[in-house]
Amino acid sequence: MPDLSTATFILPAQAQLTSQQAALQRQVLAFIRHHRRDEQAAVFVIEGDAGSGKSVVLNAVFTALQQAARSGSDPALAGLDAHLLVNHNEMLKVYKEVAAHTPHLYKKDFVKPTPFINRQRKVGGLTDVVFVDEAHLLLSRPDPFNQFTANNQLDELLQLARVLVLVFDPHQVVKLKSHWDVGMLRRHLQGHTVRRFALNQQMRVQDSSVSDWINALVYRQLRPLPQPRHFELRIFDDGQPLYDWVRARNRAYGLSRLIATTDFPYRVLDDRTWYVDAGTLHLPWDKINFTDRPWASRPETVDEVGSIYTIQGFDLNYAGVIIGPSVDYDPVSDRIVVQTDRFEDQEAMRRRGDLDDLASARAAIVLHTLNILLKRGRLGLGIYACQPQLRQRLQALA
């Protein structure tokens, strides 16, 4: 089996869950035992920031549950029917690859939400347990193009499962058609038994001062750059030296990639090559990945620019982040400003009439995208900002 642990949420063979993660696993399994025969869905919500290890725990719990259900080692879990859903193509590939090499896991256990919902509606009856990774990517409006014609995928799943286990982070919502916030989630779960557990440790970015600095930035506040001892944080004045830095770190440490906010033209269904231009850098966007291997683990992608659609949920050793034109700096207020009209992902911004403050929701999409990208690197982060005022301010703070 390929070593997926180096680039993904899969733990290395000898690694262990942290004490907090292990406690969460015990609580989820106990919750499932208690509610496995309920007629109305009971919901366990796992919360936490990007890089807090949510998917690590979900994978561990699902594996333990399926092994117990199919081996009969735990009578309280024996015979359970369970599925894990994720609305993210690259993460789904990882889950299926793991299933191919793990006893008691099958590739059919893992599926995207829409086909699962459509299939279960035809079959009828309740599924015992449904896990949803990246539940903030569940559709919250119809999407006929992707064959989802109901109003909300969470509402559908609440009618199809006895127990739902959700991984949820409202700060990783990246499309308006999957718009979620904490209040909205609470409203949709009203009337159901709900347990919550928040993971509060940063497991990816290996320096708390850096993760604190990133958190401030995505809340539009610019602070002086920290000086971490065990993490490399650099600001670049051009995209080409950033790319050179990424390539050098990739040669030395592996798993180093260049990634960017979705501020550069591309068309998903167009076969032509689309490029990211950042200063003197001219490099192709990632393309639709038709292989079985995740984008981040393919060596040739060091010469591409990744997006949230290829990197969300994955770990890098070093991340070079291009902050595109939609994110700028206002020297009067000394704050980050967002220009949503410069954001090129028009599918993510597609208008919906049920949001009270559409402008704020669109700005949040841009900042969520930035948050996801800035928290990819375990060991280092390099940044190039396309907008001159933001670039100059970051250099001054460095």
TrEMBL record:
- Taken from the record, one Pfam family name reads SLFN-g3_helicase
What InterPro entries does this protein map onto? P-loop_NTPase, SLFN_3-like_DNA/RNA_helicase
Q: Can you give the residue ranges of the Schlafen group 3-like DNA/RNA helicase domain?
A: 42-386
Which SUPFAM superfamilies does the record match to this protein?
Answer: P-loop containing nucleoside triphosphate hydrolases
Q: From which residue to which does the signal peptide run?
A: none
The protein in question is named Schlafen group 3-like DNA/RNA helicase domain-containing protein
